[in-house]
Design brief:
Belongs to the DnaB/DnaD family. One of its GO terms (molecular function) is helicase activity. It comes from Halalkalibacter nanhaiisediminis. This is Replicative DNA helicase loader DnaB. Keywords: ATP-binding, Helicase, Hydrolase, Nucleotide-binding. By secondary structure, the chain is mainly α. Among the domains are: 110 residues, Orthogonal Bundle (Arc Repressor Mutant, subunit A); 71 residues, no CATH class; 110 residues, no CATH class. Helix content is 55%, strand content 5%. The chain has 21 helices and 4 strands. Strands 2-1-4-3 form a 4-stranded mixed sheet. Strand 3 and strand 4 form a beta hairpin.
Amino acid sequence: MTWHWKELLPVDRFSVRTSQYITEMDRLTLTLLYQPLTGALAHSLYVTLLSQLERDQYWSGEQTHRQLMLLLGVSLEVIYEERKKLEAIGLLKTFKRKDEEGSTYLYELQPPMTPKQFFVNDVLSVYLFNRLGKTHYKHLRERFMLDSMPREEYTELTYAFDEVYASLHHSEMVSSHQSETGNALRINGDKTLVSRDYHEEISFKNQHFDFELLEKSLSKSVVPEGFLTNDTKKLIGRLAFVYRIEPLEMSSIIQQVLIHDDRLDPNELRKRAQEWYKVEHGTEPPALGLQTQPERHRTIADKEPTTEEERTIKFYETTAPLALLEIRSDGAKVAPADVKIIESLIIDFQLLPGVVNVLLDFVLWSQDMKLSKALVDKIAGHWSRKKVHTVTEAMQLALLEQKKTANVKAKTSKNWKQSTNRQKQPRRDKLPKWLVAEKQKEQDETGEIKEQAAESKPSSDEKSFEEMLEELKRSKEEKGEA
């Protein structure tokens, strides 16, 4: 998230405007096609702004953002972040005016693409496929499909305009400069009519794609001069963004398309880009593109790092989270499950890319390079509530977390040793009272029996009366024989 209070305050006024009417089909498209990409809050913000326009009105009165906070039941920070999503996806344009009374914002709502435009769009269709999965995506697309009409079976009978309506006679024509009719037909320069301009693409700056390198790498024998027109650059930039294609790789793809044709076929270029992606990354559809830490939240932006800590901070601020995982895997492909974890951190927990990098590295190093989603979500929820925006803040929290973990491990180790020492001693389990009484009774009875046996048994030093008689008898017999 960003320091929204630098950009927007609850007392700032706003009004809503639209120069293009919004239809029921637009509302359906917003809910089914755009909402999976923007999230429910951004969709709710769009609908709430639209509701400020009363019937047959295209410019609302002024309100404060505090009223918008009450309507949506969320903070101004959330409104600011959701507004940026609508702007990025082409549903909103924002303008600002400053005067003595403060700041006033104008939110100009843009209609969504038609279903046809949406599903043929190189960017939105791919990301919707990634969000919904193959089955749901195809089912949703079917809702907006119409059976083709077999025109060869029909003969068109439609009348042309001039076949039905007659032109006015010259004497009936009135000069537009000298009549009331002419003044009525003329539109004032400060007014405009409500219209419907279907935009076919969302805005891309293509700041990270090197077109100069691309142009130098194109073979002049294959690619005609003047090939890179503005429209061609827009198409190449979109495909490079979605499929993460570098300039040299894009050059090879373009030359494959043009090797048998002097004209670039957009559909063929899309097909080749998709084939390249499948070879490089498998059948998994591209995930939502991730950016690096915004400039306003960088602490090592305007200077060269001099210490190891500063170099680490700059690395986190200038590296995309997906690239970080690739580096930690020595260039190996990032697992789809890990890609979804990154998406969740940025979209669901709304953490900035630099903060995400710190979180990922902290979990990887503390969990033997394993990325546990449960642990990641737990830390992300904590950092999101703490409003962590910079890499430095994230590193401080990670350090505190590491110290806590070390203390817990030390305490656990101490308890384990104590438990082990106790286990070395003879185990003496306490018996229930009823069993103790029974055991005692058995011991008493056994003791009595032993005592009686001991009393009845003659001593080894004394002879019994029967033994003495037996000896006397044997003695007499021996004398008689003698």
